[in-house]
């Protein structure tokens, strides 16, 4: 199963709204990012871990995204450790634009997704795919019946 490892502070820096919010209220920017990711991964089968620097101020409750705080280390150190201990790093999708972390992930055979590209994916998914996600579980027969189409 694919697993996403997300460099949270790096991703916040790529989202204009969150970047400006982080200057005023770092906890609020973390919460908004966590909720954006939770909404994005609610329609996915993959696991996701959001790595954030420092200690948790208040607990952020998410359903589909696990949140890891680096505490006395950096989030990059924790991400590297998670990659190192993985049974199959080829199934890891590392979301970051940090060059050092990108290179480390590539050397370990993990897939790297630049944060700015991931932001585009989140935005396109939240806008255009709502109907698709709602209808993909409905069978053709149910769809015909729903719209009164007879053969």
Keywords:
five-stranded parallel sheet, 51% helix, 8 helices, alpha/beta
Amount of beta strand: 5-15%
Strand order of the largest sheet: 3-2-1-4-5
Biggest sheet details: 5 strands, parallel
**Number of H/I helices:** 8
The shape is: globular
Q: Radius of gyration in whole Å, from Cα?
A: 18 Å
Helical coverage, percent range: 40-55%
CA distance, first residue to last residue: 40 Å
- Low-confidence segments, given as residue ranges, are 127-136
Structure description:
There is one protein chain. The protein is an alpha/beta fold and 151 residues long. The chain has eight helices and five strands. A five-stranded parallel β-sheet has the order 3-2-1-4-5, sandwiched between helices. The longest helix is centred in the first third of the chain and has 16 residues, at 26-41. The protein is globular, with a radius of gyration of 18 Å.
Would you kindly provide a brief summary of this structure?
The protein is of the alpha/beta class. The chain has helices spanning 8-12, 16-24, 26-41, 75-85, 99-107, 115-128, 130-135, 140-146, and strands spanning 3-7, 47-52, 66-69, 92-95, 111-113. Mean pLDDT is 88; it is low at 127-136.
């Amino acid at each position: 199963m694919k697993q996403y490892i997300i460099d949270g502070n790096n991703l916040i820096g790529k989202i204009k709204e969150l970047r400006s919010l982080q200057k005023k209220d770092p906890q609020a920017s973390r919460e908004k990012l966590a909720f954006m990711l939770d909404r994005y991964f609610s329609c996915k089968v993959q696991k996701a871990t959001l790595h954030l620097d420092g200690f948790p101020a208040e607990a952020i409750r998410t359903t589909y995204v696990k949140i890891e705080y680096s505490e006395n280390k950096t989030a990059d150190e924790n991400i590297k450790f998670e990659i190192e201990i993985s049974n199959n790093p080829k199934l890891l999708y590392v979301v970051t634009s940090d060059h050092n972390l990108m290179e480390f992930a590539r050397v370990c055979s993990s897939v790297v997704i630049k944060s700015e590209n991931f932001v585009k994916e989140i935005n396109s998914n939240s806008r255009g795919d709502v109907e698709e996600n709602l209808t993909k579980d409905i069978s053709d027969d149910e769809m015909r019946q729903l719209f009164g189409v007879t053969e």
